[in-house]
Amino acid sequence: MAMPVQGGSEGLHEWRLEEARHLIEKAGKGSLESLVMVDALQRLGIAYHFEEETQILLQEQLHISTFDGHPSRSSNNIFQSFMIKEDNYSGYVFDLKLCKDIFGLTSLYEASHLGVQAEDILDEAADFTRRALSLSADKFLYVGNGMSSQVLGELVRKTLSNPFHKSMPRFNSMSFQYYFTGPYEWTRTIGELAILDSNLVQSINQTEIRQISKWWTDLGLAKELKFAGDQPMKWYMWPMAILSDPSLSQERVDLTKAIAMIYIIDDVFDVYGSPNELILFAQTINRKFEP
C-alpha cells in the first residue's frame, strides 16, 4: 500500500485507517492476537473506526470477552481455572503463581470490574489482583518485552487508579500510547493511527471551543450579569467527555449551550437576581432560543 504524498495529516490518517483495516482482517479470528488487537483499539480510543470489524472478531470467541463490556454468565467457570484449593482453607483461592505474570494480573484486574451482583468470584479477583499489583508496582525488574521496570510500574499504578471500564478511553488513550508495545506486525500501524487520530480530534475540539466562546461572547450575558459564571470551557468538558465520537460535533456544541443556560439559571435564581435582571435574563433566553 503506497503512502500518500498529498493531503497532509488528514490524508495520512485515511491511509493509516485503510492499512489498519487490512491488518484487522488478517488477524486470526478466535485467536488471542485478535483479542489483543481489539483491546488495543479500544484503549487507544480508535475502536469507533472499526466497529463492524471488531464485532466480527469478538463474535468468534466462544467464551467471555473482557473487552466488549458484556461478560457472559460462563465467566465463573473461566475464573475458577485460576484458582487452587488451599490445604488450610475450606474453599478455593487464586493461585499465587499468577503474580509472576504482571500483564495477566492487570488483565484479570480489568476483567473484575465487569462483574454484576452475586458474581462473588469477580469480587475475589478484584481483591486478589489489587493487592498483588499494589505490592508489585514498585518492585519490578527489567522484563522480557523491552519495557523497563519504571514504565511497567507506572502502567500498573495507572491501571489501579483508572481501570479501563470505569474511565474515559479518550482521556486515557494518550498515556496508553506511551506504554503501547507488542510483538505483532500491526503494533506500529495502530500506534501511529492513534497519534494521528488524537491530533485530528484535538483539532475538532479546538474548533468547537472557538464556536462556543464566540457564541457566549455574542450572547452578552457575561457583561450583563457580572455575578454569573463565565466558564465556557467548564461547560464544554462534559459534552466532550460523553460524546467522544468526533462526528458528533454539533451535538457537543448544542449540549454545551444547554449546560451553559442551566448554570446561568442556577446563578440567577439561586445566588442573586434583582427583578430587572431577571426580566433581562428571560428576554435574552427567549430571543436566543425561540424557533
TrEMBL record:
Cofactor(s), names only, from the UniProt record: Mg(2+)
UniProt xrefs under InterPro entries: Isoprenoid_synthase_dom_sf, Terpene_synth_N, Terpene_synth_N_sf, Terpene_synthase-like, Terpene_synthase_metal-bd, Terpenoid_cyclase/PrenylTrfase
Residue ranges occupied by any Terpene synthase metal-binding domain in the UniProt entry: 218-287
The keyword Nucleotidyltransferase appears for this protein: no
Keyword Lyase applies: yes
Keywords noted in UniProt: Lyase, Magnesium, Metal-binding
GO molecular function (one): terpene synthase activity
Domain Terpene synthase N-terminal stretches: 75-136
One example of a Gene Ontology biological process annotation: terpenoid biosynthetic process
PANTHER family assigned: OS04G0344100 PROTEIN-RELATED, S-(+)-LINALOOL SYNTHASE, CHLOROPLASTIC
Protein name (database record): Probable terpene synthase 13
Naturally occurring in which organism (per UniProt): Punica granatum
